Structures are given as C-alpha cells and as structure tokens.
Amino acid sequence: MKNLLLSLLILAGTGQLLIAQDAQLKIAVDDPTLPYYEIPENPETFTAETVAARMIDGLGFRYYWATEGLRPEDLSYQPSEGARTSEETIDHILGLTNIILNSVKQVPNDGGGAEAPTTFDGKRKRTLENLQEASNILKSGSGTLDEYPIIFQRGESRSELPFWNQINGPISDALWHVGQVVTFRRSSGNPFNSKVSVLSGKVRQ
Known about the structure:
The chain is mostly helical. The chain has a single domain, classed as Four Helix Bundle (Hemerythrin (Met), subunit A) (Up-down Bundle). 58% of the residues lie in helices and 7% in strands. Strands 1-2 form a two-stranded antiparallel ribbon. A two-stranded antiparallel ribbon has the order 3-4. Strand 3 and strand 4 form a beta hairpin.
C-alpha cells in the first residue's frame, strides 16, 4: 500500500511538472513581447520610404518566426564542414541589420557602436529592435532615401553607397540568410511554425 501511494504521489508530481513545463513553453513561443510577432499595419500612402520600410518589416516578421523557439541543437546545426552554423548565420544577420539601421540614422559603419550581445536571446532581440527602429525612421517622413547612403569608414578612409545598394545588399542578403535558418531548423528537427502566414504577416489561430 505504501509503495502504491508513493507511486501515485510521484506520478502526480510528474504530471504537475509537465503541465508547468508546457505552460512555460507556450509562454516562450506565444508571448508577443518582441517586435514583429505580427507584421505592423501597412502605411496609408505609397512612398519610396514607406515601401522600403515595408520590406524591412517583412524581413523582421520572417526573422522573428525563423528564430522563434530555436534550441541549442538547432543553433549548433552545421549543414556541412566549413559552412556556418545556424547561430553563426544569425550573427551575420545581426551585422547586416546594424548596417541597415546605421544607414537611416546617417552614421558610418566604423566598427564601433553598441557592444554586441553574446547570447542568442540578446542577438535576436537586438536584431528585431534594429529592424523596427530602421522601419520607424523611414515611415516617420524625416528624410528621403537619397539621404540614407551606406557609409563605410576605416580611419581616414570613407566611402558611400546609395540606398539602392541597401536594397540589393544588406536587406536582400538578410532575407537570404533568414531562409537558410528556416532550412537549417527543419534539418535539425524543429521546423518553421506552419501557422505562420508570411503573405498576411499574421499567425493563424
């Protein structure tokens, strides 16, 4: 009888633990506290700046869900020897979003700026916030695309590229690499959430 009672207590405790863990997982997956859980409402007017902002919003939404719920084994996944791991790809995407944001803030890419986060959660948060800030600046009407070149500066050497290069460079490059993260996570057994609609920018219930 004692053994039976002990077994029942253990089972009850295990069940409560599993319920608690499931609730914690649901919060981690479903809590929209970071930018781009859903894509923002579209601007009311079409301008060069609002279209560029929408491209960045689309990137942010895809990145949010490409990286949501990644496990350590997903982050360390490497498709082949010499290729980037998923986390190294995420590091590269963060660097690209720094270039995007610096462009619309009209500051050079000189290797300075805020200290880079070291944890996956920190990198993900910074990347999403970079994209949100860049989009908001573009939608604010405070400047035009010809005022937002990509500026590279190394010591006294300075070069500029027009915003055209931002579109076919960092923005397109980041979208490319987000697709890689989606492919990698499927290969490591943790596929992209099938309820996410990249067309509507929302999550199907």
